[in-house]
Amino acid sequence: MNVAAAVKPTGFKGIVYWICIVASLGGLLFGLDQGFIANALPTIQKVYGLNLSGSEAFSAILFTGAAIGAFLSGFLARGIGRKGSLLLSGALFVIMAGWSAFLPNYEILYWLRFFLGFAIGIASFVVPLYLAEAAPAKIRGSMGTLFQLMITIGIFGISLTNVIFIKLISSHVERLPLMFLVIVLFALIMFIGGIFIPESPRWYMLKGKKDKAINVLKKILNSQEEVDFEIKEMEEVLGLGAGKKSGTVFTKTFLKVVLVGAFMMIFQQLVGINVMIYYAPRIFGYAGITGIIAMMTVPVVNLLFTFPAIWLVEKWGRKKLLYAGSIIMCASMFVAAFVFLSIGTPAPGVAIGGFSKVILVVAVIVYIFGFAFSWGPVAWLICSEIFPIQGREVGMTITTMINWFWGGIVIAHALTIMKLYGNASLFFIFAFGCILSIVFLYFWVPETRGVTLEEIEENLRNGKKLKHIGS
Ligand code: BGC
User: From residue 336, how far is each of 92, 239, 295, 428 by CA, in Å?
Assistant: First the structure.
């Protein structure tokens, strides 16, 4: 049973807001780094003389670092704790972005971006885990969407500050350090704030430190009744798992759930979102669209349409949102592909029809809208819901890692594909990815709205088909 249903909490203590703000800064930093490239790439290219494949490699190395960071974060979160891992990622963000601001030589900058990715990989695993474990039960659900919202705020924020630096400072060498310093600033806030947040009570319980867990819960919750309830619930879950702990992850059922989570993440990337997040200004440029529209359309729409997801995800359910998102993205990718087919690859300086430009901008807006209210938040949410408790860390580690791995593959090849096979080709590939995602949703993905995590687990144990574990 849910503690919120059993014990009626009366408002939240200040520390709860503090926990939410500090931990969700991890999401913000994820966004700041993801959104960094779009408007900073031309500046980086000028300062470091990067060509097309060099730009792709520099963009994609973050994903490799993040995949490795996500892989290790499961061990880190167990070993040094959730808070310790958050502090580690905060420290890495400060050091790597801070060092980058000194504009070291390209080899060093490249590895700094790898370790920035490593920090994001840790944050993308630990933040949702910490929030789910440390926030009172009543607000645990909204925490999943809060994480995605912070990512989109980060992407928007860094796109905006980068545009401001571009407008105000004409020298590339002078503006690039400032671009990095924005990341340093927020990383410092997270690191310093992180020192003052409590460790996750569930981690203390895992480590057999019940007294410490009780102390933290007393700080977070309003009454002794709530504290006792949570402790009892944790003891039950941990007791239940003790005999099965090592077994859970080696079962066929677990493997099947991992596959569902893994494909959720693969499709989240195969629909092409990060090509828009990273390269929109460049792609718009191919169609002769430059300036503020090219630089800010994607981050603004992405941020705005993450808000409806917060309530739609409970009202419509996860699957309806995902279907709607895939269909909308598929249609808009086809439209974008046909626009590029119609304009071909114009030589620089050749005027492109106003109508084609308008259609392309509308297609991109519709596409981002389609992603922001569906696959953006829901892919992460489903991956945090479908795993049995004893395998949740392992499951989420694997799915987070796969998300970054596939994101990297897409980012490392997108521009080259456009160059080799024509600008339209990439959009056809993404449209095809959207179609495959619909097939995947239909056959394998469960609807998890309105069921408790325990019910999902029970259904799994009873051998229900994956598609029905949420009903
Ligand atoms: C994805 C990221 C993406 C972001 C865009 C997240 O859900 O995992 O790869 O950059 O959404 O908002």
Answer: 38, 54, 18, 9
